[in-house]
Design brief:
The protein is 29% helix and 30% strand. Helix 8 crosses helix 11 and helix 10 packs antiparallel against helix 11. The strands form eleven sheets. A four-stranded antiparallel β-sheet has the order 13-36-35-34, with no helix packed on it. Strands 14-15-16-17 form a four-stranded antiparallel β-sheet, with no helix packed on it. The protein contains eleven helices and 36 strands. By secondary structure, the protein is an alpha+beta fold.
Length: 658
């Protein structure tokens, strides 16, 4: 960095702590080159590691989330901040900026009685101001090697000052070399001791010219700009969500007050309880959103600052600073991508509402109604998918498993259909007990509904409505989900169609498949139209949200026969996959990117494939416990699987792509 006088704009970026947003005090630099007040960093480390294992040896940077380790990890964590190096360049800039805010007078002249003779130079080593005459007569006689700054030319946009060149923190030598193998700047001693065997060692100037000529520097700056725009979109979205929550809170509080007036003093205690619960939930959710927003805002500010500083350093041919900022920018771009990917797995809209119990007749626990918190999965704002890893490239991990057998069940379950609702609830169709059952995705049992007939596949109609294909008698049962309860909404009987198995919903109509491989379009009044006939049973159907086609799982076991097919509304069909990796296809679903997921009951696996079947990969196999997988439902980057195997027949398992 040039010692004497960055522009005012750059100065603000460099001298401000990203945590407290005040002037840096005892600036400490982490390995990622982000700088913080020692006190702020110590407080952050203590809070970040609070409640975690005492053996923790590192912590994430507050800005870019890159892990940092103190030199002595056995020391108390509230002392870790002191171990990181002090940024002496920042200290010098702060000192010089503070000095520049008041008139500077020549110290030797003052000792002679001339108190108002303005100084033109500042000796950093002596911390003394000199006029031009005293500099020559007094300072230069004894101090030829000092860093002395011309303080009359503080604005670097007009003139250049003598630069205090950054030196190696190990050998106190000038940094003039760059090792591309280790991605480190070094002095002559560093290169001789540590980098003699490295293949790519050049001068810092040569490396800067290389990354400038190869457009890496320009590409990094562009990536920083896009990343900063992404963080700006997220911060704006969080602000809008908080405002909506504030409005919901005000409406809910007013509703509570109105009801309280109708029952007067008898309900004071109940009102306090429900109000406290609503406010506590609001504070918790608002705090979570504000924390996420602050994290995005920190990274956004840092990326904007790095981008601007990189442009300035490049224009001024400041070699060392340009390289340092290039490395910091790369780290921030990767952190931005990781943060967007992480948030995409849990990006929700949160609504806190006051629900009044109808036909209130008692003064029990719900006399003042209850506070209901609703979460619904949302897409990231501003089309940020380019920053996250596609679902087709992510790995899979199991995040939950629970039992769906309820006390009223007379036999073991046989789960032939499953739907994963947007509000983190799961509906299953239990054929053996002839019930639809409602659970949270954490396994909490909510409700069940007995259905007439033999239950098969399930589909989502809208956010609070599902439909189940029923055999004996054949038809469709439409079920509403409201206030954590299941209720039958309508029945569609299909007298001319036998053995309904698979079901999906599109454009106000249902599509069902049968035991003999027929696929029908079904209207709300039960009118049917044959779309296609396959050579064998079609167990499950789903709808492609991208192209609008119906995706069909075909239960063939013979190699070379169709396993997955695509059927359009105009009755055209295309075989997507033949029996090979998948055998005995059962449950099927499609994610938001158009990837198809299918359960191979006989091949004991769950497979993900591209929309045309050209790219296929096994997500889960028998080694993951995939023994006769039956039904599958996808929600965002999460999916649930049910089983026909005797040891897992009463369970569903939840997986996540990460």
């Amino acid at each position: 960095m040039a010692e004497g006088g960055p522009s005012p704009e750059l100065d603000v970026h460099l001298l401000e702590c990203p945590i407290c947003l005040e002037r840096l005090r005892q600036p400490k630099s982490l390995p990622c080159l982000h700088c913080f007040c020692q006190e702020c960093l110590g407080t952050y480390i203590t809070k970040e590691l609070s409640g975690k294992t005492v053996s923790a040896t590192s912590f994430p940077c507050p800005v870019c989330r890159r892990m940092a380790q103190p030199a002595n990890q056995t020391e108390a964590k509230d002392k870790w901040a002191e171990q990181f190096p002090t940024n002496v360049v920042i200290q010098d800039l702060i000192q010089l900026r503070e000095r520049s805010s008041e008139p500077l007078y020549c110290k030797p002249c003052q000792t002679k009685g001339d108190l108002t003779n303005l100084a033109k130079f500042w000796c950093k080593s002596m911390n003394v101001n000199f006029c031009e005459i005293c500099k020559v007569q007094h300072h230069d006689v004894l101090h030829n090697d000092c860093d002395i700054l011309d303080i009359t030319r503080y604005d670097s946009r007009k003139t250049k000052q003598k630069q205090s060149v950054p030196k190696c923190d190990q050998h106190d030598e000038i940094l003039i070399w760059y090792c591309e193998d280790h991605k480190r700047l070094g002095c002559n001693i560093c290169m001789i001791k540590d980098h003699r065997r490295c293949d790519e060692v050049t001068t810092a100037m040569e490396y800067l010219q290389k990354i400038k000529a190869g457009s890496q520097l320009e590409e990094m700056e562009m990536a920083l700009k896009k990343g900063a725009q992404a963080m700006t979109s997220l911060v704006k979205d969080f602000d809008e969500q908080i405002q909506t929550m504030v409005q919901n809170q005000e409406i809910a509080l007013q509703s509570i007050k109105d009801l309280r007036q109708s029952v007067e003093e008898q309900l004071n205690k109940v009102q306090r309880d429900v109000t406290d619960k609503l406010i506590a939930l609001f504070k918790e959710e608002k705090g979570n959103m504000e924390a996420s927003s602050r994290q995005c805002e920190r990274l956004m500010n840092s990326m904007v600052n790095t981008m601007k500083s990189s442009v300035t350093a490049t224009e001024e041919n400041n070699t060392i600073e340009a390289i340092v900022l290039y490395q910091r920018g790369q780290a921030e771009v990767e952190s931005c991508k990781a943060l967007v990917t992480e948030m995409s797995t849990s990006f929700m809209s949160v609504s806190i509402r006051h629900h009044i119990v109808p036909r209130l007749v008692t003064l029990g626990d719900e006399a003042m109604g209850k506070v209901v918190i609703e979460r619904q999965r949302r897409c990231l704002p501003g089309d940020l998918d380019y920053l996250s890893v596609p679902l087709s490239e992510r790995r899979v991990k199991e995040i939950g498993k629970f039992n769906v057998k309820t006390p009223s069940d007379k036999s073991n379950c046989l789960i032939r259909g499953v739907v994963y609702l947007p509000n983190e609830q799961i509906v299953v169709s239990d054929s053996n007990n002839r019930k639809l059952k409602l659970f949270t995705d954490k396994g909490q049992y909510l409700d069940e509904l007995t259905i007439r007939g033999d239950l098969w596949d399930l589909c989502l109609v809208n956010n609070n409505t599902v439909a189940v294909a029923v055999d004996s008698p054949s038809g469709v049962r439409v079920v509403k989900i409201k206030d954590l309860k299941l209720s039958l909404s309508s029945e569609i009987n299909m007298t001319n169609v036998k053995h309904c198995y698979g079901i999906t919903h599109t454009d106000g109509r249902f599509v069902v498949s049968t035991y003999v491989g027929e696929v029908y379009s079904v209207t709300q009044d039960g009118a049917t139209e044959l779309l296609h006939k396959y050579n064998i049973i079609c167990y499950s159907l789903t709808q492609d949200p991208v192209k609008g086609d119906t995706i069909v799982s075909v239960g063939n076991n013979n190699k070379g026969k169709v396993a997955v097919s695509r059927l359009s509304a105009d009755k055209r069909h295309m075989d997507v996959m033949k029996v090979d990796v998948v055998s005995g296809a059962r449950g099927i679903d499609v994610d938001r990117e158009g990837n198809i997921y299918v359960c191979g009951k006989e091949s004991h696996n769950v497979v993900q494939m591209s929309e045309d079947g050209t790219h296929v990969r096994e997500l889960l196999t028998s080694s993951d416990g995939m023994k006769y997988p039956r039904a599958i439902a996808v929600r965002g980057d999460t999916f649930v699987v049910t089983f026909d195997s005797t040891d897992q027949i009463n369970y569903i398992r939840i997986f996540q792509l990460y």
